[in-house]
Amino acid sequence: MKIGKNIYWILSICLLTLFSCSNDDGNNVKLVKKQVEVSSDGTSNTTFFTYNGNEIVKTDSDLQQVDYTYTDGLISKVVTNNKVSQINTTLEFTYDKSQLVSIKSSDNYVIKFSYNSDETVSYQKTTLNTTNEEVVVYHGVLYFKDKNLIKDKKTLDDTEPGIVSKYDLSYEYDSKNNPFHNILGYDKLLNCHEIVSINNSLISVVESTVTNTEDQITSSANFYKSSFKYDKDGYPAEKISEDVMPSDGKSGYLKTQYFY
Questions:
Q1: Which long-range contacts link 153-158 to residues 24+ away (Cβ below 8 Å)?
Q2: Sequential pLDDT tens for the chain (260 residues)
Q3: How far apart are CA 8 and CA 23, in angstroms?
Q4: First-to-last CA distance in the chain?
Q5: Which of 71, 103, 138, 259 has its CA at a distance of 20 to 30 angstroms from the CA of residue 125?
């Protein structure tokens, strides 16, 4: 159930590592130079950004440094150095005709994507067990509308025998510019969830169901919302993210400011 409880903080991995934007006319490029996040307990984290044209080269904060490699205009490698644990993690991205087909992690997992005729995208995450056998962790389907990710239906495969565990994530959007969508090649990174959409996510709902061996169903729902302040070009200058209906009764809060 942790996927629902911590969804915004999980997604902050992507939020911290990639951010740029461009004006609608395509002639000028706006780039965020600094991002400041303040959580409900008062702790803050500032991230600085380095670019080469409209390609992200590096992000750096007190918590981590992330370095990016491009190949033919697509992000082919992301290396994250966790400054707290001193552990490096590498993600390698493989494409077929500009479509992301696999992500290989140094953390011993692979995510594969396949593109369906109805414009949905199927995915499957696998890992190797102690005997070096491939094990499916989960699989799912991504649904898109108007260049926005509107639904992610996921089924866990590493559960106990007879247990079926599913998650349905749904999203609603504003009509403003999502700067993440304009990073060169970033809209291909389907592992970063709704923030690769063309607009900004206002509401996300995580519904989980677990069916046991006796066909008894346990369900829960988590509701999250974000509100924005925009600059004169229609890009976010400030974002407030909140847990509206947390499963443990403890609401989370995250304020993010963007400096261009």
A1: none
A2: 344 444 433 444 454 444 433 334 444 557 778 999 999 889 999 999 899 988 999 999 999 999 999 999 999 999 999 999 999 999 999 999 999 999 999 999 999 999 999 999 999 999 998 888 999 999 999 999 999 999 999 999 989 899 999 999 999 999 998 877 778 888 999 999 898 899 999 999 999 999 998 889 999 999 999 999 999 999 899 999 998 765 555 567 899 998 87
A3: 27
A4: 37
A5: 71
